[in-house]
Write a sequence for this structure.
């Protein structure tokens, strides 16, 4: 925009030069205008920072005092001003010199369709498209991780009474059975999220073992049909364990089948202290954050010793009511009791806290970048209309209607959008594909994502230029040519 304004003021600069202004004085004049603009912008920016600082502190969870933020901000502002002025000095010196030469030679071929203008708009669109693409992929992945059944375990509306102190005499079973908002209860199992019980085997021998020195670490879990029904655990191959199978029957997960190198695990033998026979394979269950791989696991029937917590399922939207009632009943028995009551979905959401925060911050940055791009395009279109008033007037005299003129401008910006998308989408894909590799379960990057972003950006550009071009096209050609 600065370069464009200099080009539009080439007559003024030429007149100042004719009246004795030196190149240094012209450079100082233009730089001072830029410096004043940067100072005013910085002041407004600091005012906005003061308004949004509480929200940013909460979102970023950076526990620092106000001086920390302002010291960093002022450092960035001063660095930005220094870089901007340095680059502007070079551009101003070059463009003003060319503008003066063109004015002296009566040339007018330097206009807004130059490489610098197109490059500036393309770069703004490139950054905006890239950030919007990355944000949408992150949001899609976050939604996939939070809601997809690919995690192998239903955790929605499920509460856990794990353990605590001072409520040994509380009749939890009776309390839960009397609550109409409690749908179902599961006893004799430790909560899977957060995982409360850890036990593992080191397997040294199994059927089909290729390397006798190989060792596989297997986590020990318990499961039965009640557990599978409660958490909606999917049996991929074979059958669920039951009491008729005996102690030697086990289930394994997908990760264990892969670790053993079995394509058809049913009936395969694993040698521990005693021989175990694989009866079925269940879907991998993610107990931890999705950036951690699912460990190979072996599942046995529970030993019915009564250990473990109480797991229960509540009706939609009733968790707060149920949890308050349970706490109230515990306080009746012992006001000093320390109850460990948790919601599995809320616990799992804490695993996703960093991704959720990053997604929110990136969404804000993307919105700001889009706004900057829109304002930049709107300003450049305004300057373009001012400089090309004569061209628009001549086109109207020669029979061009408003639609043709509007199409002329929009086609130019559409080409810039296509050019920017050509580079932004592949780079965004490479970056997000690398980011997605941190997760065991990955959402696909589908074609409609590119189409939505491209059409959306095209619509934003159309809205940003239509008013200015429409207004310029509505002007009386005779008045414009007379003024010129």
């Amino acid at each position: 925009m600065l370069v464009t304004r200099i080009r539009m003021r080439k007559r003024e600069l030429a007149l100042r030069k004719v009246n004795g202004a030196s190149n240094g004085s012209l450079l100082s004049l233009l730089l001072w205008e830029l410096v004043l603009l940067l100072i005013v912008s910085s002041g407004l920016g600091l005012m906005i920072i003061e308004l949004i600082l509480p929200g940013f502190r909460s979102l970023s969870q950076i526990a620092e005092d106000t001086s920390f933020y302002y010291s960093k901000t002022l450092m960035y502002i001063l660095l930005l001003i220094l870089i901007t002025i340095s680059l502007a000095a070079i551009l101003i010196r070059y463009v003003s010199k060319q503008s003066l030469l063109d004015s002296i030679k009566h040339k007018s071929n330097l206009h807004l369709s130059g490489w610098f203008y197109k490059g500036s708009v393309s770069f703004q669109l490139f950054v905006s498209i890239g950030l919007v693409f990355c944000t949408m992929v992150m949001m899609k992945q976050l939604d996939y991780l939070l809601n997809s059944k690919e995690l192998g375990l239903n955790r929605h509306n499920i509460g856990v009474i794990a353990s605590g102190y001072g409520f040994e005499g509380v009749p939890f079973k009776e309390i839960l059975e009397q609550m109409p908002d409690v749908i179902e209860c599961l006893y004799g199992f430790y909560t899977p999220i957060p995982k409360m019980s850890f036990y593992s085997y080191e397997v040294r021998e199994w059927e089909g073992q290729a390397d006798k020195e190989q060792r596989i670490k297997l986590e020990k879990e318990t499961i039965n049909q009640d557990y599978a029904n409660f958490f909606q655990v999917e049996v991929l191959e074979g059958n669920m364990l039951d009491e008729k199978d005996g102690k030697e029957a086990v289930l394994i997960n997908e990760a264990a089948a892969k670790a053993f190198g079995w394509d058809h695990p049913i009936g395969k033998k694993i040698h521990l202290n005693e021989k175990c026979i694989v009866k079925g394979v269940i879907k991998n269950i993610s107990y931890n954050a999705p950036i951690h791989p699912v460990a190979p696991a072996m599942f046995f029937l529970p030993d019915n010793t009564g250990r473990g917590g109480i797991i229960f399922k509540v009706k939609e939207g009733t968790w707060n009511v149920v949890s308050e009632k349970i706490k109230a009943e515990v306080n009746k028995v012992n006001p000093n009791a320390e109850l460990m009551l948790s919601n599995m979905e809320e616990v799992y959401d804490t695993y996703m806290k960093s991704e959720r925060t990053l997604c929110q911050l990136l969404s804000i940055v993307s919105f700001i970048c889009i706004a900057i791009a829109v304002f930049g395009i709107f300003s450049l279109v305004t300057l373009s209309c001012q400089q090309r008033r004569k061209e628009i007037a001549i086109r109207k005299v020669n029979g061009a209607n408003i639609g043709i003129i509007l199409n002329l401008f929009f086609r130019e910006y559409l080409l810039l959008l296509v050019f920017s998308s050509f580079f932004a989408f592949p780079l965004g894909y490479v970056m997000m594909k690398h980011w997605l590799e941190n997760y065991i379960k990955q959402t696909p990057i589908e074609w409609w994502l590119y189409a939505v972003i491209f059409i959306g950006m095209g619509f934003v550009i159309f809205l940003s230029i239509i008013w200015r071009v429409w207004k310029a096209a509505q002007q009386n050609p005779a008045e414009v040519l007379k003024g010129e």
